Amino acid sequence: MVTLKQLEEELITNDIAFSYKDKDYVICPLEKIYVGEAGNVGDNNSFDTFEEMANNWIIQGKALKDIISEIELL
């Protein structure tokens, strides 16, 4: 099980891919944090901070912070 703290630490050096309910998602930390469903060009979001992403990125109707214990890192 991954925690928000582990996810934030991993983003310092790496892009992250994870699966949630049979869909894959990506997080790319550049000048902003870019996120979205893998392969879905219409699902592009960007956030200025990790906290903003955790609280405001809605994945299948829930904020990332609320599903963090259910994601599986790829």
Characterise this structure.
This protein has 74 residues and is an alpha+beta fold. It is built from 3 helices and 7 strands; from the N terminus they run αββββαββαβ. It has helices at residues 4-11, 50-56, 64-67, and strands spanning 16-20, 23-29, 33-37, 45-47, 58-59, 62-63, 72-73. The strands form 2 sheets. Strands 4-3-2-1-7 form a 5-stranded antiparallel sheet. It has a two-stranded antiparallel ribbon with strand order 5-6. A hairpin with a 7-residue loop joins β3 (33-37) and β4 (45-47). The two termini are 12 Å apart. 12% of the residues are buried. The model has no long low-confidence stretch (mean pLDDT 94).
Concise summary:
This protein is 26% helix and 35% strand. The chain is of the alpha+beta class.
Secondary-structure blueprint:
Elements (H helix, E strand, L loop, with lengths): L3 H8 L4 E5 L2 E7 L3 E5 L7 E3 L2 H7 L1 E2 L2 E2 H4 L4 E2 L1
Antiparallel strand pairs: 1-2, 1-7, 2-3, 3-4, 5-6
Main sheet summary: 5 strands, antiparallel
Query: Mean pLDDT, rounded to whole units?
Result: 94
Alpha carbon gap, first and last residue: 12 Å
Low-confidence stretches: none
Instruction: Give the class from helix and strand content and strand pairing.
Output: alpha+beta
Shape: globular
The whole-angstrom Rg is: 11 Å
Order of helices and strands: HEEEEHEEHE
Q: What level of helicity do the residues show?
A: 25-40%
Q: Count the helices. How many?
A: 3
Strand neighbour order, sheet with most strands: 4-3-2-1-7
Count of strand segments: 7
Please indicate the percent range of residues in DSSP E strands (runs of 2 or more). Answer: 35-45%
